[in-house]
Amino acid sequence: MVHYGHSNQLRQARAMGDYLIVGVHTDEEIAKHKGPPVFTQEERYKMVQAIKWVDEIAPGAPYVTTLETLDKYNCDFCVHGDDITLTVDGKDTYEEVKTAGRYRECKRTQGVSTTDLVGRMLLMTKAHHSNIDEDLDYRKHTDNFGKGPKGRSPWTGVSQFLQTSQKIIQFASGKEPQPGDTIIYVAGAFDLFHIGHVDFLEKVHRLAEKPYIIAGLHFDQEVNRYKGKNYPIMNIHERTLSVLACRYVSEVVIGAPYAVTADLLDHFRVTLVCHGMTEVVPDKDGSDPYEEPKRRGIFQLVDSGSNLTTDLIVQRIIKNRLEFEARNQKKEAKELAVLEAMRRLDEKR
């Protein structure tokens, strides 16, 4: 997956030099060393390229980083997080560049990992958005793919992420709209920030010569009201960083109102309000949340050209998980059959 933990690593890496090239592995390389990827390699190429600290990507980068790779892209050194990565046979993937003194390290973002996010997606219950005890559906998957039910937040299930103002400052552009800018407002959950969101924001960005895109992010309770189940997978703070890391976004409204009001439009001097082709759920009182921008004639639907949704990502995760479990069960059955055959052979002797 691609998440704000990766974005934070890339932010730190970019600060160490002048030009950042990010090597992205193929699906085949990831499947060999780590397991089935959630996003395809083409999706990951585009996702990484959309992170604002990235100058260039190196598609199909080898899993083991060598001096040859660094020289190929004229890189002085490479950067990785302070968590060790190993090949399928247990070797340090950065051993060669470390020995040559062309390796630097950055701090890993606490409270998020692909494994953790996968765990959250497997807990498809609404229980963690209330204060009631977890039901069997929750406990069913509290294994190595997620955290146990103790000490979890009633709003985010298994998230251990702690937001600070410093982290937001590090991710924010800090740029205010300039004269001549077209101020465009978009709103939503932007949960599990993915290629569908990137494609949408890129299309919106192309609508103006000097776009200044403000993304309104709804609070967790609001997202849960219109999405249900255990959505959002990421809490409001995590979603804020995910969206801020995107090169097409200039500003984020944390906890934006569900209805795009006249006050909001006037406060930010909004020129245009955009929404994707996904369904717009009515507000609590049954009204259209985009009634005001439509009345002003500044509302526009934008087709991202992508059919990927958070729901589809969750379906991919569950499919991978079921295939993983089926493969393991088949392997265990085979091993048991071999042991049974050996036992019978010993008895005959």
From TrEMBL:
The keyword Cell cycle does not apply. Pathway: Lipid metabolism; Phospholipid metabolism; phosphatidylethanolamine biosynthesis; phosphatidylethanolamine from ethanolamine: step 2/3. Residues 1-118, 186-276 form the Cytidyltransferase-like domain. It is an enzyme of class 2 (transferase). Transmembrane segments: none annotated. One of its GO terms (cellular component) is cytoplasm. It holds the Pfam family CTP_transf_like. CDD domains: CCT, ECT. Keywords: Lipid biosynthesis, Lipid metabolism, Nucleotidyltransferase, Phospholipid biosynthesis, Phospholipid metabolism, Transferase. GO terms for molecular function: ethanolamine-phosphate cytidylyltransferase activity. GO terms for biological process: phosphatidylethanolamine biosynthetic process. InterPro entries: CCT, Cyt_trans-like, Ect1/PCYT2, Rossmann-like_a/b/a_fold. Its EC number is 2.7.7.14. Belongs to the cytidylyltransferase family. NCBIfam families: cyt_tran_rel (TIGR00125). PANTHER family: ETHANOLAMINE-PHOSPHATE CYTIDYLYLTRANSFERASE. This is ethanolamine-phosphate cytidylyltransferase. It comes from Columba livia (Rock dove).
